[in-house]
Amino acid sequence: MTDSTFTAALAALVGAAFGSFANVAVYRVPRRESLVRPRSRCPSCGAQIAARDNVPVVSWLLLRGRCRRCRAPISARYPAVEALTALLFALVALRLPSEGGGSRWDLLPYLPLMLVLVILSFIDLEHRVLPNRIVLPAIAVEIALFAVAAWRGPGLDAWVRGVEAGGAAFAFFMVLALISPRGMGMGDVKLSALLGLALGYLGWGRLLVGFFLAFVLGALVGLALIARGRAGMKSHVPFGPSLALGAVIGVLYGGPIVERWLGR
Ligand SMILES: [Zn+2]
User: Fold this and answer.
1) Nearest residue to 30 (alpha-carbon basis) of 182, 113, 134, 138
2) Cystine design at 33: which of 28, 180, 192, 194 (Cβ 3.0–4.6 Å)?
3) How far is the CA of 256 from the centre of ligand 1 (A)?
4) Where would I find the H helices in the chain?
């Protein structure tokens, strides 16, 4: 096993465990419940979930998506969130240390970023809201983590660029939200500051690529929903997941895309 495969496998395991936490956050944060207490229970029968039934992805498969006690179906969202977080952690571990002058210290800001984006995306899909209780602390913590990563890695210039990019994205999305309040919420505006920081840290080209992809994805999702009769031209389609996915692609694969599109 090569060094990078080992790192990716390890990151996937850590990601699956954090994915389990992400499920708790997706369920509890919008309901204003505590993240640490009580222990997880079956929503149908109230049985406490034993540790052996709480192994990410594996338990859901072994139990065939049903509660051990009452056999009520458990949403496939749970293993999906765990698998997605595992995948994103592995991709960050594989891609980032080799990206544009990056170092292993880049994992410090980008792994928590992936976790936050998974949590926010699934909350937005279900509740059409990006809670301040997650977005605002995430911005503060990530500004600090990116400072450490820049200091140990590419230098503080990268951090300054990231903070400027976050501010620029915030201003741009704020204008969009004021022009078309129906399409974009204040949650999207605040999320764009976080994503601008993460993209801009890697370069201004990444910022363009990430947000361009976000708008393309958002438009495709909107059109697909309208085509399937799930949404009208004026109904609110959550934009958070498209924003997050565009930024994630920009972070992970923006380098090659920037080279091809912008010729540098
Ligand atoms: Zn049950």
Assistant:
1) 134
2) 28
3) 48
4) 3-28, 58-62, 77-95, 107-127, 132-152, 156-179, 186-200, 204-227, 240-262
